[in-house]
Structure formats: C-alpha cells, structure tokens
Amino acid sequence: MSTPNPTPQPGRQTYMAPVADVYAAMVQMLGFNASFDLVHQDEQSHAVTFSAPNLNGLFTAKVVPGETAASSAVEMTAPMDAGEPARQLVVKFYKDLGDQLMAQTAVQATSAQTTVMSAPTQQTEVVPPVPAANTAHDAPHDGQNTPAEPVGHRASKNTFMAMLNDSNPGKISAMAVVALAVAAAFLIFGFVALGVHPPIALCIIFAVIAAVLCVVAYLKTQPGKEHGRLFTTIAAGATVVGLVLSLVGAAGGKQESQPSAAASPSSSASSSASSSSKEARCQSFSWPASGAAAKIPAPKATKAMDVYEFAASYSLTACDVTASDFEDYVNELRGKGFTVGLAKSSDTFTAENAAGDKVMVMHNPKEDTMSISIESEEDADQEAQRKAEEEAAKQAEEQKKAEEQKKAEEAQKKAEEERKRQEEEQKRIQEEEAKKQQEAQNQAQSGGVTPAVKEAMDSYESFMNKYCDFMEKYTADGAPTSMLSDYLKMMSEYSETTKKLDDMDQSTWTDADMQYYLEVMNRVNQRLASVS
Fold first, then answer.
1. DSSP string spanning 22-86?
2. Rounded CA gap, 128 and 57, in Å?
3. Which UniProt keywords apply (predicted)?
4. Number of domains in the chain
5. Whole-angstrom Cα Rg for the chain
6. Average pLDDT of the chain to the nearest whole number
7. Is the residue at 2 inside a domain?
C-alpha cells in the first residue's frame, strides 16, 4: 500500500477556457469515454466523481477559476492504493479533456505539477504533473509550464461530432424541439405526397419553413448556449428526406396527368368499341311465363343482355329501345296496376301494384337500352317461407345429429367405464391370487408355519438367548452394581418382547403355527432353566 508524499509540490492543470466550458466538456467526455464511468456530478461546485473499470476507488475532478477570467484549472484526487495505473489514467483524463475542449473552443493548456486534494472518504496520494497532450513518461517535474500539443486526428473526429451534438448543460432548447416536430411533420407529408401528388410550390414552402427552423435551432445550440444540437441534426436530416419524397410525389402527379390528356382524343374510338361490345352482348331471349316476370308485360324488344331470374325477382336490359318504346312500356305498366307510389321522369319509372310488387324501368337514350327489374312481394314471401322451412328442417336435422352424437358419446363413455371396471376387477383378482400363492409359497418354505408367526417367534427366541447370555454373565460376576443399568434395560426389552407375543391373535394360527410356537417355547424354557 502506497503512502502520501510528505513534501508534495503544488500544481494543477490549467486550460484557457471559462469554468463553465471546461466543466461541460469534462461531463461530456466522461459520458462518452469508455475508459471512465461517471458516478456523480455537482453543477454547483463544478465537481465530478468517476471511476475506472480496472481500478478500485474513486477519482474526483473539480474545475476552479484560473488566474484570469478566461482561464480555469482542474484539480484531481486519485485513490491512494492505485499507484502507477492511476497516474496513467490521470494522464489520459487530461489528454482527452484537452481534445474535447479543442472541439468546442480554442484551448491553450499549460502543465504544472498536480497535487492531490484531501478526500473526505478515502486516502489520497500526490499525482505527478501531467501535460495535457503527452504521456506519463514525458511529464515534466520542474514545475515549468509546457504548451500542450494537439492531436490532429482526434481533434478532427471530435470537431465533426461537435457539429452533430453539443455538451451544453441545462434543458433542451425549445427551438430545437419545434424544429424537430416540424421536420417530422414534413417527413410524414413527404410519404403522403407519394400518393396524393401535391403541387411543387407547396412542397418547397413546407421545406423552407422547416429549414429556417433548423437554422435558428442550430444557432441556439452553439457551444455555451442551449442544449439540443442532436435534435437539430435529426430535424435537418428529416427535412432533407421529406423534401426529396415530396418532390418525387409531385413529379409523379404530373406524369399521371399527361397520359390522361393523351387519352382524350381516343374517347370516340373507345365509344365505338363500347358500342360493338354491346351488340355482341345483346342476344335473343324469351319472356318467362311464370314467376315474378309474368306479373308485368313483356317489352317489344327481341334482344336483351344481363338477364337475371330468381324466385322472387327478375331483371334484364332490353336492346334497341327508343324513347317512344320506353313511354309505351310505361303506359302498359300503368295498365297492369302499377300506380302505387309512382315516380316518373324522362328516362326512369318506379311504382308498385296493390299486391306490393315493385317495378323499376330505366331508359338509356345514348345506348338505346332499357333496364327492367321487378321484385314480387308474394314470391318474396313464399321464398322467405321456403327458406324458413328449409332452415327449420336444417336445424332439426342438426339437433337430431347432435342428440345422436351425444347418445353415442354417452354409450361410449359407459362402455369405457365398464371396461375400466372390468380391468380393475381382473387386476384385483390377479393380485389376490398372487398374494395367496405367495403366502402358500412362504408357508411351504417355513414348514407350513405362517411367516408372521415364524418371524415373531424367531425374534422372541433370539432375544431370550441374548437375555440368557446376559444373565449368565451377570450371575458369574456376582451381580455387580456397574451392570445394574444394563440389567434394567434388558428387563425393559424383555417386557416389550413378551407383550408383542401376547398381543398376537392365536385364534387365527394354524396347527403348524401352534406346533412351531411350542417348539420355540420349549427351547426357550430349557435355556432359562440352564441359567437358573
């Protein structure tokens, strides 16, 4: 464990930048540098606490005013036990902080001897003077100031990143938020423009508004001002993409209008083609003698197209029908009683008869066609009744099938339950038979004696032999007091053994069981007699 230098030389790292700029750069650098982990920051005292991934303990850095109003200094505190790795980390800290400042303001770093502030919670050691742009091995120790040398490639990279982001503390600029919202709306407008094809002037006006807001937001987020440069950068990108999409959509609308204009001269050709198509579709037909069509008169036309016949309705389009033919047919419908709710124009006629049948006739003078359709109320009622009967029959059939299926499932369930019961009964019989066979086999192996009786008698005889052996030793030694506890224990076991034997139901014993019982008791009595 290292100890503090008893005679430290005072010194600190000085930067030609205000305290606020140095503190902001320090927080920015700690937040994006993988070599440091920011633990705590205090904006009031311009101090930060951070750690390193491979070192124990915490580092502190505090920005204090410099000798002039345009300068400031950074004072460092390092963990006492870190040793040489801490010195190298401090070198990297000052070097990266100098690079970060170069990306934001003009930096003039001067090196001096760096001392360790007294930390309230940990032991500290003196940090040797560190130049802002040199390694630990090149650090001067004579207390003289050495200008820092900028690192070109690092500065270039950080300058580009500074254009995209900022290190300004505080809240996000309201103008940056507004610019981002307008740019997002313009981007959505660009996607919509691909389908609706707006005017190009509208696209340009929207783009100019978004661009002006981006410029204002960019100026508001300059170093030392408000935070929100990243929002401004995203807004600018969204504005560019929205402009491209909207212009593409507007150009597509113009291209679609040109084919439309070119198609106008060919309208007469398409009309003639349509007429030829109509002639091909018009075919000879016969008017139905039954159904809904029988309730209205047949037209004079001999050809028709689009004929549709159903149970309660009928429709067709008659060909080669003039305006006078239309009027004549309408008069015939009136003569058939279609006068209820009558509505007529120069080319349409709708009405109902007393039975509720509804007829509609439309004449097309351009194509000399007449569309006729009738809906029969009576046939409709009959059709509805027929459909209701079919639906009822269908539901009855489905219900019958459901009931049959339910019965089949219940029968299957009962059969399954019966099969399981028979299997369980068969299994029980087999188990009982196997048990009987096992008992007979055990009885045969034990000379006809029941295994439970034989086990109990053998256990009794074994204990009695043990008891007799103990009593022989107890008597031979003159009944010493030292064996009294063993004797009492043996008597307790004797009581338990005899009680188990007495509790057995001898009424269920076989003759072989009783014979074996007498044999064991005879041998036990003989052994007891020998002990006495």
1. HHHHHHHHHHH-TT-EEEEEETTTTEEEEE-TTS-S-EEEEEEE-SSTT-EEEEEEEETT--HHH
2. 18
3. Coiled coil, Membrane, Transmembrane, Transmembrane helix
4. 5
5. 56
6. 80
7. no
Q: Give the tokens for residue 449.
A: 């004696």
| Angle, CA of 306, 308 and 311, to the nearest 5° | 170
Single residue among 104, 129, 164 that ends a domain in this structure: 164
Q: Which residues contact 148 (CB under 8 A, 6 or more apart)?
A: 98, 107, 108, 109, 110, 111, 131, 132, 133, 134
The rounded distance, in Å, linking the Cα atoms of 53 and 59 is: 12
Give the structural domain span for 240: 174-257
Residues 241 and 359 in one domain: no
pLDDT digit string, tens, across residues 495-505: 888 888 888 88
pLDDT at 123: 41
Query: Cα 56–61–63 angle (5° rounding)?
Result: 175
Q: How far is CA 195 from the centre of its chain?
A: 32
**73 within domain boundaries:** yes
Residue whose token pair is 């904006």:
43
b (16+ CB within 10 A) / e for 323-334: eebbeebbeebe
Instruction: Find how far residue 421's CA is from the centre of its chain.
Output: 50
The pair of structure tokens assigned to 415 is: 């059969």
How far is Cα of residue 449 from the mean position of the Cα atoms in its chain? 73
Do the Cβ atoms of 293 and 314 come closer than 8 Å?
Answer: yes
Task: Decide: helix, strand or coil at residue 352.
Answer: strand
Q: What's this model's pTM, rounded to 2 decimal places?
A: 0.28
pLDDT > 70? residue 377: yes
Together in a domain, 178 and 153: no
Asked if 330 and 424 sit in the same domain, the reply is no
